[in-house]
User: Which sequence fits this backbone?
């Protein structure tokens, strides 16, 4: 049984964040202070504090299991990395070691640990010299000019503890799988959810957080006080009672096509026929179970897709985020540029969007075949 765990906390204002509890169900004070700062001081999403709290609970679990003080942990984080990779609380003593966390998961935990210790240094909880154990200072002279930008050549820091990850493969829902999900839907609302995730690439929290006023499915939205032409959706970050939240702080506009507009019109007819749903300003509401007329929770979308995957007879369970990957893959295949993809997906950096740029083997073959063969003069 683990001694430390992540746990959600609801503030009097209604906002939620996640903290770390010990075996007596008391918050770990220094971790709680940082997680609260992330949620309120940095205006990060609740899901971000959940991921950070889960990572920090592992750090404290390791310290407790090995008799270490958390303040001394930075000097021995190599051992922590090994523990993350191979420690299994449910394993039999003396059993062969196996990898229980892949390199990507370990790197995510270490990123949260580094951010925590940077905060601890900033507030004087630990000595600033611990950062030397977390980061290496290297010369950036070897970086391409595109990466350095306009800044002069100098020094930069990089994490000391980072495992080599295999090339990331995007787990996208194939078009055939999405169409099977659509056929398995038994309501206009469910069809709209599937098509919305597939055709505009929203995250599940973004879609569940949309309000009716965010949907401008008209050719000209000037009467709605919007200058954007064409059918589109406004993705805005809010603190919603159903726990849905857009990940990015920056609002964005995502164009919609005729297929989604038709699905939306059919869903509105179904939604308006439900009297308890009419007063709710959320786009997605419970129509068939739970509190009828209340906004759908993001987790309900996962439950819906699990049921649809079974009903469609698919060989795997399709998750909502896989349709977002499918949207990005299709946009790239249609010739979108990196900056267009970044804006559509709401990514902060180009590196988050670059994973979709890698062409498949068929496209590489087509590119080679398009190159003309040299012919001898006069041949």
Assistant:
């Amino acid at each position: 049984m683990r001694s430390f765990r992540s746990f959600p906390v609801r503030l009097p204002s209604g906002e939620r964040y996640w903290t770390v509890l010990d075996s007596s169900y008391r918050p770990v004070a220094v971790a709680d202070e940082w997680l609260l700062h992330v949620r309120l001081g940095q205006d990060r999403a609740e899901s971000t504090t959940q991921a950070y709290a889960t990572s920090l609970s592992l750090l404290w679990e390791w310290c407790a299991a090995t008799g270490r003080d958390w303040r001394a942990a930075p000097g021995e984080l190599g051992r922590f990395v090994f523990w993350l990779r191979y420690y299994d609380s449910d394993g039999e003593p003396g059993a062969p070691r196996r990898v229980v966390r892949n390199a990507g998961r370990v790197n995510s935990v270490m990123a949260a640990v580094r951010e925590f210790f940077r905060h601890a240094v900033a507030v004087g909880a630990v000595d600033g010299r611990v950062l030397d154990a977390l980061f290496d200072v290297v010369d950036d002279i070897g970086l391409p000019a595109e990466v350095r930008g306009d800044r002069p050549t100098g020094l930069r820091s990089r994490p000391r503890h980072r495992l080599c990850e295999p090339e990331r493969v995007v787990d996208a829902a194939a078009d055939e799988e999405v169409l099977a999900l659509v056929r398995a839907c038994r309501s206009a609302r469910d069809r709209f959810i599937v098509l919305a995730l597939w055709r505009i690439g929203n995250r599940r929290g973004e879609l569940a957080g949309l309000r009716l006023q965010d949907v401008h499915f008209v050719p000209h939205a000037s009467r709605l006080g919007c200058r954007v032409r064409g059918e589109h959706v406004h993705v805005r970050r809010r603190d919603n009672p159903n726990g849905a939240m857009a990940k990015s702080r920056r609002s964005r506009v995502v164009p919609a096509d005729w297929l989604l507009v038709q699905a939306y019109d059919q869903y509105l007819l179904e939604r308006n026929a439900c009297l308890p749903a009419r007063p709710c300003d959320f786009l997605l509401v419970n129509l068939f179970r739970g509190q009828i007329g209340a906004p759908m929770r993001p987790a309900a979308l996962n439950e819906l897709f699990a049921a649809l995957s079974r009903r469609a007879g698919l060989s795997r369970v399709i998750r909502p985020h896989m349709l977002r990957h499918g949207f990005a893959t299709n946009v790239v295949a249609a010739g979108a540029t990196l900056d267009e993809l970044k804006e559509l997906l709401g990514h902060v950096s180009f590196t988050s969007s670059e994973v979709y740029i890698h062409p498949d083997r068929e496209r590489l073959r087509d590119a080679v075949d398009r190159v003309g063969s040299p012919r001898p003069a006069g041949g």
About this structure: The chain has 15 helices and seven strands. The longest strand covers residues 5-10. The CA atoms of residues 16 and 268 lie 31 Å apart. The two ends are 79 Å apart (CA to CA).
